[in-house]
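Researcher: Last one for today. Full complex below.
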Amino acid sequence: MRPPVEAIAQLSIFVGAIALLIFIGVEAALIYAAWRYRESRMAGPAPQIHGNRTLEIAWTAIPLLILAVVFVLMLGTMREIGGSVAAGSSPGPLRVTAKGYQWWWEYRYPGNVLAVNEMHIPVGTPIDVDLESGDVIHSFWVPGLSGKTDMIPGRINHLRLYASKPGVYEGACAEFCGVEHAWMRIRVVAEDPGTFQTWLDGQAKNASGAASRGQQVFAANVCVSCHTIRGANAGGQAGPDLTHLASRATLAAGVLPNDARSLRAWIADPQRYKPGALMPLVPLSDADLDALVEYLGSLR
Ligand code: CUA
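Model: Here's the assembly. Have a good evening.
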């Protein structure tokens, strides 16, 4: 199969070439007519003519034909890049559910493996993505991998991703969804199937790390009522799952790099970095904050 981006590119080039040919033809006819019938060559006003059946039919039929061809090709491309609709209809592709929230992403892999804000995919494998929304309309768009498709509350849309080369593919939410719409960055890491499997197995596990003071701080504060940390008795559903927080490259869907300093700054005042985000400022002592950052930083 062709990667979706290639299918889109080929269609764009084809349509662009037709448009270019029409442009050249029309401009050439225009310039020729302006030169051929210039005033100095004409004696008196030009003869007025009305109606030419052959011409009328030709300039109706030709554009109709061109648009019909483009329409059919476009439908074919949409089908090709849309992903398969029915679960299990094609055994090959990996099926992932991507869900948009204000303002972060959740990815669900087969076996109910959950990942947040950072999607990993194996190279050379078609990925069928089911697109859902947890609140308002978002739009999933990774230009290097596929076209853009809306995530609409109450329905499931479909999209196919395919990476032929390993790398990090950046994307963003493409439908205005509130004040932090611009900070709904998508990060897709395409890697060889072995590395992908290792990552997937890692995400499937419960949280690492022994009980610590930071974990107590987490459990004793409001953190626990919004966030899940599997294996650590934290099951909040309102915010992103933090079970493997430290395995991600960024915080807050791309706002900050994921290091201890940024994590501390983020928890100390989320509204400073992402105004409007649902995460509140939780007053913590410096010692508690340090312990919490150390604990969260250990969740690989
Ligand atoms: Cu989500 Cu814009």
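The first strand starts at residue 94 and ends at 101. The chain has eight helices and 14 strands.
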